[in-house]
Amino acid sequence: MTDSKKSPSKSVAKKIDAARRELKTATAPRTERQLLLCVDRKTAECASRSSMTTSWKYLKKRTKELKLSRVSGLWRVPCYCLGVCVGGPIAVVLPDNCWYGHCTPQVIERILKEHIIGGTVVSEYMISPKQLEK
User: Fold this and answer.
1) Is 36:92 a contact under the CB 8 Å cutoff?
2) Among 1, 40, 73, 91, which residue has the fewest nearby CB atoms (within 10 Å)?
3) Residue 20 or 36, more confident
4) How many domains would you assign to the chain?
5) Average pLDDT score over residue span 77-106
6) What mean pLDDT is reported for the chain?
7) 64 in any annotated domain
């Protein structure tokens, strides 16, 4: 039986310390929201590969144009399957716990302007039953 409170090895502890130092200089601590977008082009079950690629490219371009970045509090994250393999591309805004379906460039535009900037959920495309209480 192993002790669950066992300290990491010296080499692991050094890597953890290095990661802590790196994080202090990174922009992640200023992140207020994360926008995760499914771009699982290998299996592509929720949407076509081309629509995932188009949506991701649009998200990157528009966040730059709108000056929404890690520094301003938004961290956009491409990710593999989010577990909802229909009606995609799927996006999740955290910590709001708002899941969106059919995230075409037009829908992403609304999510950025209405939800991220304006603070109002885009209910027509929301697939989660409700936001979690903060």
Assistant:
1) yes
2) 1
3) 36
4) 1
5) 90
6) 84
7) yes
CB atoms inside a 10 Å sphere around CB 2 = 5
Is residue 90 in some structural domain?
yes
Quick one: pLDDT at residue 133? 44
pTM of the model: 0.78
- pLDDT > 60? residue 8: yes
**Within-domain flag for 126:** no
The residue-averaged pLDDT of 64-84 equals 85
Output the CA torsion sign for 34, 48, 82, 101. positive
Domain-embedded: residue 92: yes
Contact between 89 and 81 (Cβ < 8 Å): no
Tell me how far the alpha carbon of residue 98 is from its chain's centroid.
11
Give me the domain span that covers residue 78.
30-117
| CA separation for the pair 114, 36 (Å, rounded) | 17
